[in-house]
Amino acid sequence: MLAVFGVLLALALVGPMLWGDRAAAVDLERLGEGASWAHPFGTDDLGRDMLARVLVATRLSLVLALLTAGLGCGLGLLLGLLPTVLGPRLGKLAGSAIGLLLALPGLLLALLVATITGVGATGAVVGLAVAIAPAFARLTQTLAAQVAGSEYVAAARMTGISLPRLMLRHVLPNIAPALVLQVAMAIGGALLALSALSFLGLGVQEPQYDWGALLNAGLDRIYVTPAAALGPGIAIIVAGVAFNVTGDALAGALAGETIRPARRSGRGRSRSAAASSAVPASGPSAAGSDAVLQVDGLSVTFEGEGGTLTPVRDVSFSVAAGERVGIVGESGSGKSLTALAIADLIEPPGTVQAERLALHGRDPRELPERERRRLLVTSLAMVFQDPLSSLNPVLRIERQVGEAAQAHLGATRGQARVRAVEQLRELRIPGAARRMRQHPHELSGGMRQRVTIAMGLTTRPSLIVADEPTTALDVTVQRQVLRVLRRVNAEHGTAVVLISHDISVISAFCERVLVMYAGRVVEELAADRMRVDAAHPYTRALLAATPTLDADLDRPLATIPGRQPALDAVPGGCAFAPRCAHASDRCRERLPLLETLGEGRRVACWHPQGAALPVREQEMKR
Question: 267 exposed, middle or buried (CB, 10 Å; 0-12, 13-18, 19+)?
Answer without folding.
Answer: exposed
